[in-house]
Amino acid sequence: MKQEMTGGCQCGAVRYTAQIDPEQAYLCHCRMCQRATGGVSIAFVGLPKSDMEWQSEPDWYASSPIARRPFCRKCGTPLGFAFNEGENMDITVGSLDEPYGIEPHWHFAAEKIHEVWIDTSELKRISLSEHAALSQRWIDATGEVPE
Q1: Where are the beta strands (DSSP E) in 30-93?
Q2: CA proximity to 44, closest of 11, 70, 73, 12
Q3: Cα–Cα distance for residue pair 33/63, rounded to 1 Å
Q4: Which of 40, 46, 49, 143 can pair with 24 through a Cys bridge, CB separation 3.0 to 4.6 Å?
Q5: In what helix (H) or strand (E) does residue 77 lie, and over which residues does it extend?
Q6: Domain-by-domain residue ranges, the chain?
Q7: pTM flag (> 0.85)
């Protein structure tokens, strides 16, 4: 079932509204996505291009001869992926205003998975509030600790 969700880049220059089907969320592990994001994988949700409305247009990077990626030229936030041909595209889950509750349903390019980064449930967890010096830096600079 689709739900209307909003999102955008870190600095707010690029904004969008999309009709999202949470069942279309997945993790991509391909080397192109790893390099495009600097991460070991990227969380995407697929949708028809017709279900995507840009309130402010992103820039597009031709990441290969067959695809391009929307991003913010001001802050660099990666916003998605789209083949040059076809009716569908992907939006980065992290660019959604409220990504909580979106869960992945499959892994793509599974041959490139960095297995040690998949199940991190046993790792020690440190909240930002536990790092007093960093929290204070944020408060001094902006008056608050970011979410």
Answers
A1: 42-48, 52-56, 59-64, 67-71, 80-83, 88-92
A2: 70
A3: 10
A4: 46
A5: none
A6: 3-114
A7: yes
Task: Compute the distance between CA of residue 72 and CA of residue 75 in angstroms, rounded to an integer.
Answer: 6
Residues 6+ away with beta carbon under 8 Å from 72: 8, 9, 10, 11, 13, 14, 58, 59, 79
Q: Contact at 8 Å (CB) between 95 and 8? A: yes
- Other C-beta atoms within 10 Å of 9: how many? 23
Reported as type and span, the H/E element at residue 79 is: none
Q: For 7-54, how does the pLDDT look when each residue is reduced to its tens digit (9 = 90+)?
A: 999 999 999 999 999 999 999 999 999 999 999 999 999 999 999 999
71: left (phi over 0), alpha (psi -120 to 50) or beta: beta
Sign of the alpha-carbon dihedral angle for 79, 84, 86, 87: positive
Q: CATH number of the domain at 3-114, please? A: 2.170.150.70
The two counts, helices (H) then strands (E), for the chain are 2, 10
What is the per-residue pLDDT across 67-92, written as a single tens digit (0 to 9) for each?
999 999 999 999 999 999 999 999 99
